[in-house]
Amino acid sequence: MNSCRTLQLCIAGGGTGGHVMPALALADAARQRWQSLQVSFIGAERGLEAQLLPERGEDVLLLKMHAVQGVGLLHKLRVLLWEMPRAVYHIRRHWKKQSPTLLVGVGGYASATGVIAAIINRIPVVLYEQNAVPGLVNRTLARFSKCIMLGFTEAEIYFKAKQTVHTGNIVRTAIANTRWKNHSPPCLLVLGGSQGARFLNQTVPQACIALHEQGKSFTVVHVCGGDESQRREVEDCYQKVGITAKVMSFCTDMPNFYACGSLMIARAGAMTVAEANSIGLPSIFVPLPHAADQHQTYNARSLSDQGAALLFEQQDNNANTMAKLISDTLFNSQQLQAMHKASCLICIQDAKQRQLDVLSLWLEKEGLESTSS
Q1: Is residue 369, in this structure, part of any structural domain at all?
Q2: For the chain: N or C, fewer Cβ within 10 A?
Q3: Considering the domain boundaries, does residue 279 fall inside one?
Q4: 204 and 150 share a domain?
Q5: With contact defined as beta carbons under 8 Å apart, do 297 and 211 qualify?
Q6: Whether residue 210 sits in one domain with residue 128
Q7: Same domain for 91 and 224?
Q8: Do residues 149 and 294 share a domain?
Q9: What CATH number did the domain enclosing 241 receive?
Q10: What is the residue range of 37's domain?
Q11: In the prediction, which pLDDT does 361 show?
């Protein structure tokens, strides 16, 4: 059905793929349900969204913003007293022609300015927290929001119970339709994130060399991030001992990447954990040690505590301990099957429906009809 009148959803935030990709997934899902809905974005010039959103032809307002975590006092004062008020002014000016019906803040420093502008303009705000430990922006602005959608139930303790809805994180349909299966010989996936992970790029190849020297038969698909020189360096580590490995700086076909794997070693960003869980992909998560509030560790524990994954702390570990963990898991089909089953049991399959149901409380109230109604 067509909408009674044109309404607009604005999604604010970004900075990293952990914020941008959930924002895009939510936008695509909302457009599918409400075909006449207009979706716009607010992001930062320094964030990943500055590249991805224009490439997709999205309506995006990019702001000159910096983060306030991990910086000195003078830098924080500049952001809070100059950059943020200036950004809020630009947003409200941008909205003079048409204000959004609803704003969703997905986290990241650009999210704060969008939420503040919405509060001033009396626009309803919904927050979307992807991680098991909420970020600073969402913790700070929670009191001003109508609802907080949680990717992990573990985040509930940081907010008032009446504000939260455990929706899970939306996983792209092509990934959600991918199903895990073991391979012969087994295939090890390595995923360090869009920027790459030096620890994984150095440690995993060395661990694989040790396993190869023990006579183990396996293949590797390694997404190393970084530039071409880094890719060649990682590729050379495998090639010099004869390990069959495909090494990429960046993967554009994630469903195929996941489908190749018997076991994955990865950082524990919210979306990586959600995608592995959706597929039922046995995984060894290596949380980023310096992630804010150790949120990656808690993301990983949401699966490891249920037997659906293994947690490998980077501190005090090396290629030898990594090799043993890979050996005990990759070549143990019963262990892989048990992890797969445990993952399937705890997976939220209807995260998209749950999030859209939250948004419908404001969008459909204002006159937008769902195509699924």
Answers
A1: no
A2: C
A3: yes
A4: no
A5: no
A6: no
A7: no
A8: no
A9: 3.40.50.2000
A10: 8-168+349-363
A11: 94
pLDDT of residue 281: 98
pLDDT at residue 219 is higher than 80: yes
Global confidence as pTM? 0.88
- pLDDT tens by residue, 49-105: 888 899 999 999 998 876 655 566 775 676 667 678 888 999 999 999 889 999 999
Residue at 38 is within a domain: yes
Query: What angle, rounded to 10 degrees, do the helices at 198-213 and 228-239 form?
Result: 10
Residue 256 shares a structural domain with residue 134: no
CA–CA separation, 128 and 9 (whole Å): 14
Task: Indicate the pLDDT class of residue 2, thresholds 50, 70 and 90.
Answer: very low
Of 186, 252, 196, 246, residue with least CA distance to 224: 196
* pLDDT at site 339: 98
